[in-house]
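Sample intake sheet
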Amino acid sequence: MRLLALLGVLGLAACGGVNTKIYEGTEPPLVLEDYFLGQTRAWGMFQDRAGELKRSFEVRIDGKMVDGELVMTEDFVYSDGEKSQRIWRIKRVDAHHYEGRADDVVGVAKGVVYGRALNWTYTLALPVGDKTYHVQFDDWMYLQPDGVLLNRARMSKFGVELGQVTLAFRKL
């Protein structure tokens, strides 16, 4: 019975969160297909749930519009020398919604934007050693007045936070 109560509390906690609409009208407005068109650079880190820095990385991003979609090629270089690439295909659905796809994203990423803030939610197939885990991302981006884009993502599995990813983007 205690286990059911604990799962219920975790489920309720996972449902709560910030409503993107509270950022309506905030400046500068974040328009992904404008911000990520061309060359962008980012620096980031992953911290475990205790806050310990586990890994840092740099990302070079090349964005192009192809058939009405923003195609973003992200080239990652990690502090341990590992390299990887993710190619996002992002489509604007309406004034406030985006959909995104990438090879390591399970299904479709859903984005909601109001004013300067964007919230992405998606499941990522994350390889760890010889296994792959499906982890959920609750990803928030906030455009700053000087063109810097700050990004903070909570990574979880079964509603339990595994850690956080923090990035700072700069348009080149």
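Comment: Confidence is low (pLDDT under 50) at residues 1-15. The domain at 20-171 is CATH 2.40.128.20 (Lipocalin).
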